Amino acid sequence: DPNVIIVDTRNDYEVEIGSFKDAINPDITAFGEFPKWIDDNIDVNEQPRVAMFCTGGIRCEKSTALLKEAGVNEVYHLEGGILRYLETIPEDKSLWDGQCFVFDERVSVGHGLEVGEYELCRACRFPICDEDKTSTKYVEGVSCPRCHDRTTDEQKENFAERQKQIELAMQRDKQHLGE
Fold first, then answer.
1. Mean pLDDT score across all residues of the chain
2. Tens digit of pLDDT for each residue in 69-87?
3. pLDDT band at 179, cuts 50/70/90?
4. What pLDDT was estimated at residue 174?
5. d(C-alpha 179, C-alpha 161), whole Å
6. Looking at 91, 110, 129, which one is the last position of a domain?
7. Closest listed residue to residue 116, CA positions, set 91, 93, 138, 98
8. Considering the domain boundaries, does residue 99 fall inside one?
9. Is 15 helix (H, G, I), strand (E, B) or coil?
10. Rounded distance between C-alpha atoms, residue 126 and residue 118, angstroms
11. Do 129 and 98 share a structural domain?
């Protein structure tokens, strides 16, 4: 429905790896920024119809409450979130584009909740894909294209030492403390 505003309530790094077609990305780094995004972007005088979605539904419950509190009457959200959608809607009927970031060891999932292709950068904890690893700014355990220019040389040295310890633990067939 062209008269419905579709909003992805997730953080920008989650939206980067997948979202619904034509959804608005609020471009927030943390959900705490969402109320300001509402104030800056939703004109309650127009009484828009707003549909929202998030990973599992919790942020949608909160964002629904925020929009209603702001004065928007018609607010909807995807029950069960993206995960339920990907689990139940066949890929050939899906409007989802990409993968869904998840907060567990899988990092990302696709349709049927198949494990995705993303890993976490050990330095910044953001998702990275194979293409990111071809960047000159990628050093395993130390930096990725997202964080390379945001970290100091001292931080990179610390990350490199941690990576060295991880590799030593692997060579000894031991688990590293941070794993």
1. 93
2. 999 999 999 999 999 999 9
3. low
4. 81
5. 15
6. 110
7. 98
8. yes
9. helix
10. 10
11. no
| Residues contacting residue 161 through CB under 8 Å, at least 6 positions apart | none
Active-site hit among 54, 60, 121, 147: 54
Report which DSSP code applies to 122: T
Report yes or no on 75 lying in a domain: yes
- Same domain? 85 vs 136: no
Residue 176, in any domain of the structure: no
What's the maximum distance between 2 C-alpha atoms anywhere in the chain?
A: 64
3-state secondary structure of 48: coil
Q: Which amino acid is at 78?
A: L
pLDDT tens digits for range 149-174: 999 999 999 999 999 998 998 888 88
Active site residue 54: yes
Model confidence pLDDT, tens digit, residues 134-153: 999 999 999 999 999 999 99
